[in-house]
Amino acid sequence: MSPSQTAGRTRREARASTATNLRAGSECKDRRMAPKPSTTLLILGASGDLTSRLLLPGIATLLRAQPARRVDIVGADLRELDEVEWQTRVRTALQLDGVLGSGAKTALGGTRYVAADATDPKALQALIDSIACDRLVIYFALPPHVTELVCGALEQIGVPEGTILAIEKPFGDSLEAAQRLNALVTRIVPEDRIFRIDHFLGLHTVLNLLGLRFTNRLLEPVWDRDSISRVEILYDETVTLEGRAGYYDRNGALRDMIQSHLLQIMALIAIEPVASVSARDLRDAIGQVLRASSIVDPVKHTRRARYTSGSIEGREVPDYVAEEGVDAKLGTETLAEVQVEVATARWAGVPFILRSGKSLAGIRKRAIIHWKPPAHVPEGFGGHDTPDRLVIDFKPDGFELHITTNGEGDPFTLEQTVLRGELGGGALLPYGEVLASILDSDPRLAVRGDAAEQCWRIVEPVLRTWQRDEVPMHEYRAGSKGPRGWRTNA
Ligand SMILES: O=P(O)(O)OC[C@H]1O[C@@H](O)[C@H](O)[C@@H](O)[C@@H]1O
């Protein structure tokens, strides 16, 4: 059995037993109305893009993989939305390959939409009272300042026993805001019922990092500063703003991608060996890495850039600042790169380079572990003894091991050979994976409060340096590989 299969089996088993415990301990407001134990997913911000584009399709894959699972979906938002329109949105999202599975049919049958101002305690109380269920999951698909207001209202009115809060990224918009939000949410429910969402933790390749790293005798002994020269985590996208200027222009690549997703991936690559893959062991180890991490010199160790007009895969793309909804005065970057140091005995001196950008020439979503060259290459070899590297592709799932071998035809020359493999994907989209863990109360795929704060602590010196314009804003043509001179070895 491959490591990924082992990890997958463990996850499923853990979920099954957690679900059983929950079912045994759950309470129902009105058992006559809901004879079978059930969970209601109350989505706040349901009329938004995230719900249709990511959340509902995630649920669709979950209900297809586990048709017996019961999830009632209640959508709520400020916006008035016709019940028929909501039903159509849910049906469209739940229909996979044109087919509505049995689990999806049940979910669709029970779904409804409520127009409500969830920041108003009275309206929120009425909304929650209208839901008869065993266990409530409140999903905040909302901007951080609105999430904070809703949590303020929840603190006033209280939540039903067992309620879970699932909070979308970004968690706060600064260290101070994240600390304030953490203090607030933990006054409402305990930490183990707070799921700070990072859908990258539901990516199979990201999860497979654990199996790959910890179950291979071949890798673990060379996973440190003695053997590794640097680690790159790259997330180059071809997508542009996709109508998200309202959100993106206030955040930029550093906050949108590096502060959250890429630091989480970095932490999983850098964690110390864990005794178990329990939520506690994993999250303790992640916390330890993040506490030890910093961007030592933001002027020297960061770069930023913004795209200008160009064309991507035949699509004409305007200058970023000419995109609808963009405020040029904000000086938002669409490509960011930082060098993080992890000050531990394992990693001291090894740069972790994290980079992400939009409107680039091609999709490169990968981590690359670069090993040092061997201490001595026997004299007499011709050709190149390029250092070994492991490339882990997040999308599509896969990996490549680049190693040096004897050259073809002449055994006394050297050349690079690439061993390719697939890392087992799964039936669920990342949001499906994350939602499954929420519904099963398994916090392994959620960000713990301390980690969310640490990620802000790591990037804030950069944000301040950039605000003072101490790092130049470069430009790159949309559809190019980035600014000149920014090439990486990946
Ligand atoms: O590759 P994925 O799964 O679409 O994730 C990337 C996206 O992740 C989101 O969290 C960011 O807000 C987007 O800007 C980004 O495009």
TrEMBL record:
Pfam families per record: G6PD_C, G6PD_N
Q: In which pathway does it act?
A: Carbohydrate degradation; pentose phosphate pathway; D-ribulose 5-phosphate from D-glucose 6-phosphate (oxidative stage): step 1/3
Q: Which InterPro entries match?
A: G6P_DH, G6P_DH_C, G6P_DH_NAD-bd, NAD(P)-bd_dom_sf
For this protein, the record's SUPFAM superfamilies field holds: Glyceraldehyde-3-phosphate dehydrogenase-like, C-terminal domain, NAD(P)-binding Rossmann-fold domains
> Which N-terminal residues, if any, form the signal peptide?
none
What molecular function terms (GO) are annotated for this protein? glucose-6-phosphate dehydrogenase activity; NADP binding
Keyword Lipid biosynthesis assigned: no
- List, for all copies, the residue spans of the domain called Glucose-6-phosphate dehydrogenase C-terminal: 212-484
**Residue span of region Disordered:** 1-33
Gene Ontology cellular-component terms for this entry are: cytosol
A GO term (biological process) for this protein?
pentose-phosphate shunt, oxidative branch
Give the UniProt keywords, A-Z: Carbohydrate metabolism, Glucose metabolism, NADP, Oxidoreductase
Specify the Glucose-6-phosphate dehydrogenase NAD-binding domain's residue ranges: 43-208
What PANTHER family is this protein classified in?
GLUCOSE-6-PHOSPHATE 1-DEHYDROGENASE, GLUCOSE-6-PHOSPHATE 1-DEHYDROGENASE G6PD
Q: What is this protein called?
A: Glucose-6-phosphate 1-dehydrogenase
Gene name as annotated:
zwf
